[in-house]
Each structure stands twice: as structure tokens, then as C-alpha cells.
Request: fold
Amino acid sequence: MRAATPIDRIAEQHTRELVDASPVLATTLGVPGRDHLLDDLSPDAHAAHAALNRRTLDALAGVAPVDATDEVTVAAMRDRLGLDLEGFEAGDHLADLNNIASPLQGMRDVFDLMPSATAEHWAAIAARMSALPEALGQYAATLREGARTGRLPARRQVELGIAEAGGLADAAASFFSAFAATARPDGAAPSDALAADLVRGVRDAREGYAGLARFLREELAPHAPDADAVGRDRYQRASRAFVGATIDLDETYAWGVDELARITAEQEALAVAIAGPGASVTDAVATLDADPARTLHGTDALRQWMQVTADEAIAELDGVHFDIAAPLRTIECMIAPTQSGGIYYTGPTDDWSRPGRMWWSVPAGVTTFNTWREKTTVYHEGVPGHHLQLGQAVYNAAELNWWRRQICWMSGHGEGWALYAERLMEEFGFLEDDGDRFGMLDAQRMRATRVVLDLGVHLGKPAFDRYGGGTWDYDKAWALMKDNVATDDGFLRFELNRYMGWPGQAPSYKVGQRLWEDIRAQASAAARARGKEFSLKDFHARALNLGSLPLDVLRGAILG
Reply:
């Protein structure tokens, strides 16, 4: 077992201070004792976080790495903390509002991860709900400071925030009311005292979100800019944050256009095999959707199918393409309490008391599901995707400090690996069924589409002639989505709004996949140049044992 080094101790101290400052992070990581609290979201708290980053960077500058693991830790921390400071100094946190991953959602989403078996658990839930007015008031203060200094989210994101906060405040439809109604501590009804605490907590949570909606409507909306685009400077910074590498944005846009055309041609050819000569992608979708063998009815059937599919992948890959550690052979497939339509993964705690979980947030009214669309999603979220990737980092505690295991994560590495894993399952022969392979191509086509529209809108790139030319905007991006993503309009609208308000994140999936494939190709070429046989299994094991890293750092660690 590797002995902890001074660099490890700096990283551990940094992580302890992060957890001390963020009860939400503590819950996410499974650190007990602070589940009744919420984060300080004020401008002062952001300044304190920046000060922590500066102290840690100063500490790293004064200590020499003792081995290759230390060298990777230092490179990763300098990259992540330095970029975080760049964003702070630019005031990015002062306009942090979107429809998927801003504090508005984060303060609600943490309740999904809270234990709820005992009366003590529900008391913490009630207390945390009652803490929402203060936390959301601090969040409003940060956005207010952004408005004062001219840093505001786009009007579209403000309006979406008003609607979402209003829904959480609504007496009839609030998540908090429905959540509290499920309270059965130790299998029994809550005591009178706990029931009163929960009623108070629901009321406070709803009032907190009502106050946020009022602030957004009355103070922020009148000043929010109409333009969705954030411009090249902010976009380049966001891209580096999400990808973990500095990319040529213009070359990447051109590659995205070509990649979209390539995947479209591949899918169109497969549509003919599925639906007959002259068939279109739309015809193939209709054929697959009409197949009862590919249809599930109800969320119970969906959850069971997810679980069986995930378990089968683990069993068949283990010992053949990967050596999967015992704790990673368990994954829990869950139906999320929300109804956004998203599918996501939450990692295991360090002690494995909470396993890795795949969540499906089923939209209201949706009761029918098509397996051809989603088999590749199970591989993406499960094994060999996020569950293997993130779980292996947690399992490798003997080599990786706490920051490396649980804090250092970015979507270029994580989502890039998961998209790479989708193609890997095709390579391994798990998508030989035409419908399942068609679904994988459908998902890859969506990811290529958003490279084009995300970069296109935010950088003001020329739009395709068939959409009227000029520069990309929201309406032209919507037309591009409609032409290339075969799903319902509600999901498409949510996704497009996400891309507008979370610049640089969506392309990081496909760009990350591209970089993973490039690193693999370079590693293979380097092995051949040394006269050695390239082992894909060994390459994957080595890369995953490093944990999540900025992709520029991963490249250096793998290739030397």
C-alpha cells in the first residue's frame, strides 16, 4: 500500500475544508453529521472558497512530488483550482442560473441522496428543508451582486428559473410536500413531533422557493439580457473547465459538423436494414417503437429491465474485458423522485455503504419505454460507463487521495469515457442487434448535434443554409435538434434550454470521447513503436486507476 505523501496531505486537507464548508458536498460524499444543514451561497462564501484555492495552490508550490502519483495530483490540482480561480475572478458565479445544474436545482437535488430510514434521518430532512429560505436568500444575494456588476444570466434562464422555483413553491405540486408524505421512519408513521417538524419544513421550503421566484421575477428578469450566447472568452473558460483540456474551438466546431454527417450516414444505412429498402430514420424509429418485444410498460418494468441489463453487463465483462472489483459488481437502478426526463448516475460513498446508483427521472405521464433507445444508456451510466469509472476510483483508495477519488471530476473525462464506453460495447459485440445499435447511433448523433449547436450559438458561428444562413441562434438550433434527435418535444426543449444556459458542458461529452479515442490510439502507437503488443484491457485498467483527471493531464500520465 502506498504511503501518504505531503502532497496527499495537502489534497486531503483541501477536501476536508471543502466538506466543512459544504453540507451538501458532505451528503453527496456520505460524510455524516451535517445532513440537517445547507451551504452558505452568499458572495462571502464564494470569496472564502477562492481563498481556500489560493492557500492550497501556495502549499503545493512549496512541496516537491515524491512519485508519479504526486506529479499527477499536482498537475490536476493546479489545473482545476487555477481554473476555478479564473472563473471566480471573472465573476462567473455571479450569473450561475440555468435549468439543470445551478444552486436552484442543487438545493433540491441533495434530498435525493439523504438517508430516510429512521426518525433521526427524517428529522434531518425536516431541518434541512427549514434551512432553505436562508440558503436561497444567500443565493439571491449572489445573483443580485452579479446584476449590480453587470454579470447576469440570459433572460431565458431567468424565466425558466422562475417557473421551476414556482413549481417547488406550489402547495399542490411541490416536491417537498410529496417527499414529506412518504415519511415512514422505522416502518411506522412519524411521531406527532416529527410530523409537526415535517409540516414546518415543507412550509419553509416552499416559502424559500417562493421568495427566490419573486426575486427572479421582480429584480433579475427586468435586467437580464435577451441574448443566449455568452461569447468566446467565457465559452473558452467553460470549455476548459468541462473538457479538462484546451481545444481549438473553431476546429472542434468543424469536426462536429463532419462528425454529425458521418453518424447520420451510418444511422441512415442501418435504417434500411431495419425497415426495408428506401426507409428513412423516421421509418426505422416507427418500426422499432411498434415492436412489442422492445416495449416496456410502467416504471416498475423499466427499473427491473435497467437492473437486469446492468447486472448482465457486469457479469459478462468481468474477467474478460475488465477485472471488476467485488464492490463494483453491485449497482442499484432507481426511478428518481423528480420528473425532468434526465438519466444520471450517483457514485458510491467511500465506505460503500451507499452503492453506485443509476437514476431515471421519468416525465409526468410517460408510461411506455422502448428498450432499443436505452440499452446504450444503461451501458453509459453503468458498466463499462460511469459506474465502472467512478467506482474504480473509489476502490483505488490505496493509491488515490480523497481529492483524487471523490472531488476531481469533469465531464470531458467522465462523460467522454461514458460515450467511449457506448462505442466500446459495440466493439465488444454487445450491440449486434440492429435495434440496439440503432439506439446507440441515435444517442451519438444527439451528442454530435449539440457540439454543432452549442459552439454555433455561443460563438456566433455561421448557420447551415437550410436553416436560413446567418448565425446560429435558439430557433435555428431548435430546427437542427428536430432534424437530428428522435424524441419528444418536451425532452428536446429541456435539452436545448440546458445548452443555452450551461455553455460548454454538452459538447464535452463528444469532445471527451474524441480525446479518449485519441489517447488510446497514441498509446497503441507508442507500444508498437517499442515493439510491444498493445493490451486494451491493460490500457483501460491503467487509465481508470488514475481516477478522473483533466484530459490534458490524463494524456501526460498515460503517454509520459
Summary: The chain is about 65% helix and 5% strand. The longest strand covers residues 332-335. Residues 254 and 452 are 8 Å apart (CA to CA). The mean pLDDT is 96.
